[in-house]
Amino acid sequence: MLQREWTPGWRVPVRAMLSLHRRGRADPAYRVATDGSVWRAVHTPDGPGTLAVAGRADGSVLARAWGPGAGWLVENVPAMLGAHDDPAALTPLDRAVARLAERVPDLRIGRTDRVWEALVAAVFEQKVVGDEAYRAWRYLLTRYGDRAPGPVPADMRVPPPRPRWREITESDWHRSGLEPVRARTVRAAATVDVERKADRLTALRGIGPWTAAHTRIRAVGDPDAVPVGDYHTPSVVGLALIGERVDDDGMLELLEPYAGQRYRVIRLCELGAGMPARRGPRMPVRDYRSF
């Protein structure tokens, strides 16, 4: 076990920042312990590893890690928690954004530097409700992921490395509930080393602006990534900024003055105003396993 204590100089909401990487309540690669620490299983450049991160009352952060990837994980904790980011890059230009910035002071955007992990999870979530994507993620990690190193529950798994995703059988793709289009997208993307190509993801077949934006948000901490085509984001932004729901075009118009910092504004809306009340029928959870 490797351990690192880090004092960032600002208050770090560990759970809020790392929650972006949780894929459903039963994510095999993510746990929140009873003491409030966040545990993540990650396939690093050095191999599988488990990271536990906890914020302390004095403002410091304690990180512990296990496995071949332990050194890489503890070294990258500051980046995961936004040390590279500059919240002062956003200058509020209207009262709504200024009010949100006051509610969520010093908002920072973290980065994992694991593009493939973020990309494959985003592909799972393309044009479906979360439960459908999370079910497939849980099934395939349980079946193809390595057991997470360290003192973790037996069912905690490290996401498979990129080459192993090509080894998943047709029957297991089917059992996961993922339909053939997304399975083909993952398999095709697995032939490319995407770690240094986060700015060119849309060149890959099946990867559009929504998927690329969600990947960049998590992997490289892009403060300007806008997930156009998202089911909820336009409503969140519209209600937070002007008090009414908008579509993608309306959202882009509202965010245009903040070019370069548009995702930071979106995140302020999410954290400072919350999700809008849901009305009307929800998207159904599909199950391709019966087809």
UniProtKB/TrEMBL annotation:
GO terms for cellular component: cytoplasm; protein-DNA complex. GO terms for molecular function: alkylated DNA binding; DNA-3-methyladenine glycosylase activity; DNA-7-methylguanine glycosylase activity. InterPro entries: Alkylbase_DNA_Glycosylase/TA, DNA_glycosylase. Keywords: DNA damage, DNA repair. GO terms for biological process: base-excision repair, AP site formation; DNA alkylation repair. The keyword DNA repair applies. PANTHER family: DNA GLYCOSYLASE (PTHR43003:SF6), DNA-3-METHYLADENINE GLYCOSYLASE (PTHR43003). This is 3-methyladenine DNA glycosylase. It comes from Gordonia sihwensis NBRC 108236.
